[in-house]
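debug: dumping io for the single-chain case to check the tokenizer round-trip. Nothing else runs in this session.
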Amino acid sequence: MKPYPPERIRNIVLVGNKGVGKTSLGDALCFVAGLNNRRGRVEDGTSLLDADPQELRRKQTILAKVVPIEWRDHKINLIDTPGFADFWGETVGAMWIADVVVIVVDASVGVPVATKRLYKMAREFGKPVAFFVTRLDQPDADSDVVAAAIREQLGARAAILAMPLGSGPEFRGVVDLLECKTFVTAQEKTTVGDVDEGLRAKVEAARTEIMDDVAETEPELMEKYLGGTVLSHEELHHGLAKGIEEGTIAPICCGSALTLGGVEAFAQMVVDWFPAPTEAPAVEISLEQGEKETRRPDLAAPFTAQVFKSTSDPGIGDIAFFRVFAGQVSHGEDVYNASRRTAERMGHIFVMRGRERMEVEKVCSGDIAAVAKLKGTGIGDTLCAKARAGTCAAIPFPQPMISLAVKPKTKADQDKLGVGLQKLMAIDPTFRMHIDAEFNETVVEGLGEIHLETTLERLRERFGIDIEIGKPRVAYRERLLRSVKVQGKYKKQSGGRGQYGDCWIEVQPL
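debug: decoded output
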């Protein structure tokens, strides 16, 4: 894959409640972009994104995936994430390095609690937020009700960029309100056309609502708009991009991953209207001398990247996924791990599409890639040029909430158990283990029961260790309930002066 300049890169992450169709939307985007000949489906195990054996068995996303999509001379780095809260460690890492967080909402469900939590997390990270209302082909789907719920329950200034054509079984596509174009999909083919006269009044009214939101992004635009002048296409683009970047406008797109309606329009909106890495806030670096420095996605700036995900492949070993915030890095180049103060060599740099690996010679600012066989680099570490070394802010992964006691079934697996658990901790910062010294038992911790279950399944499959699982033992303590004062005397007479002692001890509860 050829390198892309920062202004032609879009980094988006799909988040949302479990079962809303994030992976299906990702597979649909890959299909319309020509990445595969047939559309993958989670239900029948043909998804391009959910390719891990555990995901195929469970039919749910467990690991975050980065899929590069080339679209109209742009590169969209699409990151699909788990929706189940037990695996939100993967979601947090992906949100941290993305430029836009796209929250997927089911048109027939609305805004559940998990969606509110994800929206709050994105705003805490300072990320622009967009919404994709999916499953408009369902009988009870209503995009207007969902848009109203987004505004009322999340407090987001949501701007509807795509208006559905039909609803339920009659849904056939969307109207791009910014370009005034229709995207009609039939038999997995999308046709772009002009707006019919019967829809023009409704489209103009919806477009006016967008201009109302865009005009508030800058005083100059507001003054011009209130003066009765219609904003030009360039002014609309500038104001909307600024509103999305600053988080004052949350665009709403819509469609159906099943029928592909609205999917192509969404891809075009991403490259046309979503902010590029050059428009994202500069990343702050803590230099080794104790100073602070900001770095922008400039190719001439010192190389700065952060590892946000790690995985292990039986064929090539450990793989580290990283986002380049500044500068660029080439195949075989020596870099510096500022977090651990060690040197690393960027051997095979590549991007992944499902199980396929495509090597790249160079990764530029704003882009995302992976590298294999780094000696001592972990999740959250900063890779940079040694001459101007510094570290990025730590990724705020969630803390473990549940624990289990594990022990190998055979003595032969005792030594392998520690090695396997250490390996799993290296690729999952929300999974931890420790040895309880009082009972000499191994205790593992995770975000939930399903999280620990899948992690221990991976321990059996990858390292061949059979384990027994139980509840951790608790060391109970006795405590004082009231104050006590006692006396002890010591007497010993064996000739001569003898020995005598009188001791008082008083103890009381703290």
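debug: round-trip ok. The mean pLDDT is 92.
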